[in-house]
Design a protein that fits this description.
homodimer, Rossmann fold, DNA polymerase, domain 1, 2 domains, globular
Chain lengths: 219, 219
């Protein structure tokens, strides 16, 4: 099982949204909050390209780097409000106990992911793939492909668990089965349209229905 | 045309979400942020009842009043970040100029609505119906029925414009036609499933496609 991080294991999407909003405002780029929300989880580079196109505001490569840095800072300041989603730790612990291989693959940077991951108990041997380790983040398939490779498992036998349409699209491109969670604030139908094989409320709901994925637990 | 306020004319949903989250935390009620988001726009009383049921935490009537007061305060402190949605003022001005009757109907209180409405130019003769003026807020139809009555127009000839499923459900119960906007952060399909006749991105997009509602503008 290959997990996205923000909105999937951590209740952190709204903090990312408001961090981007604060940073874009300081750059004089007014963008409605829902439009930012719908882009969380995609590659930061693609996010900024879409911004340029939609707002008509030109951004240099230096501007884009600065925006990404400012966002990392603005998100860090909100990290105190971030918590694991209900059932996240229990789901990961169950998979570990049952010998089901799992990894984390996030469009975030190494630095941000490391700070976020401190909120969960994750054994150091668990692969954590960030955008610093691949050429392209989501919706490109690279993050999930690298995560499956790090586990030594075929991607086509993997589940990708994510809250955003970018996870589901990346799962399709990687030839994995996408499983959606509503805990990032997308609607069920958006995730289904993007290819989710099944959609759960949050990690707790996924854990309660783990049989539906054909994962057999042994006590 | 009968307009919801938060998420429909104002970019204020995320501020309401975080205000509720802050207040619930101080009461020791941990609730994932997306679950709060999906309840914004419904009656505060129904919101708190759902909370009691889902979290198993008992709330007295005094607790509920206190929570509502605290939320009003927490939202007010975030009001400085709230802006009109793109096209909101232009849409309202166009309707006024064309002689199309319109009103505002919000599940919020008089006090909060008044503060929020200061962000828009709204002529004092425009009816503004709040939860203080009706027995039940959304998804009950009362707010929209009262708004149509204040305009002296039949509800069955009215459009209800709103960002949440609660607006769309209230529109159905009122026998009005619901028009959705995505600017509150719901997905298009959620609004369509709740009965939206048509869904636009935001007030600007609705204004650009006003012909689709059969509203004829004359220059």
């Amino acid at each position: 099982m290959l997990f996205d991080l923000d909105g999937t294991l951590l209740d952190s999407v709204y903090q990312h949204v408001l961090a981007w909003r604060e940073v874009l405002e300081t750059f004089g780029i007014p963008l409605s909050i829902w439009r930012i929300h719908r882009r969380i989880g995609m590659s930061g580079g693609l996010f900024l390209r879409a911004l340029v196109r939609e707002t008509g505001r030109a951004l240099t490569a230096a501007d884009a780097d600065r925006l990404r840095d400012l966002h990392a800072g603005a998100y860090s300041r909100r990290l105190g409000e971030v918590k694991p989603l209900p059932g996240a730790q229990q789901l990961l612990d169950m998979l570990t106990a049952q010998g089901v291989p799992w990894a984390i693959a996030t469009s975030g940077s190494d630095a941000t992911a490391r700070r976020s991951l401190a909120l969960l108990r994750v054994d150091p041997h668990v692969p954590v793939i960030t955008r610093d380790q691949v050429a392209y983040a989501k919706p490109n398939p690279d993050l999930f492909l690298a995560a499956a490779e790090a586990l030594g498992k075929p991607i086509a036998d993997s589940f990708v668990v994510g809250d955003s349409v970018w996870d589901q699209l990346a799962a399709q491109r990687a030839h994995a089965l996408g499983v959606g969670v509503l805990s990032g604030g997308y609607g069920r139908e958006e995730l289904e349209s993007a290819g989710a094989y099944r959609v759960y409320d949050d990690p707790q709901d996924l854990l309660n229905h783990i049989d539906e994925l054909g994962i057999r637990t042994h006590s």
